[in-house]
Structures are given as C-alpha cells and as structure tokens.
Amino acid sequence: MRFSGFDDEWNEDYLNKLFDNRNERNFESLEVLSVTINDGVLKRSDLGSDRKNKDKKSMKHILKGDLVYNPMFM
Asked: How many domains does the chain divide into?
C-alpha cells in the first residue's frame, strides 16, 4: 500500500533499529494492563478475567506513548 503522493524508494529496516525496548520491571504498585486483539491496551481488571498475576515483578513497565504488543498475537 502506498499513500497518495508518495513515490520515494522503499526503505526496509528492522523494528529493533527503529524503537528502543523498554525493559523496566518491578513496579508492584501499578495496575496490571493487558494487550487485547480487538481493543488495544486495557486494565486487566476491566476484562473480567480470573487470570491473576501474583508476581508483578516480572511484568514490564509501560509509559504513555509506548508501542505495546503481545508477541503471542503476531
């Protein structure tokens, strides 16, 4: 797909060269979020899921503006 008026050459690159991977963990006081296929990032508590993550230390910290994805959905 090309956008109207765009006729420059394509550049092929890898995501790890375009973005930095945030790997900050151990924010136990923050609410757990989930990445959903249809609705994007939601509070885990809003999903009505019984899935509990007892160990929040292993979860990554995200900030507003971060690109968040679940590799299981790719």
From this structure: 1
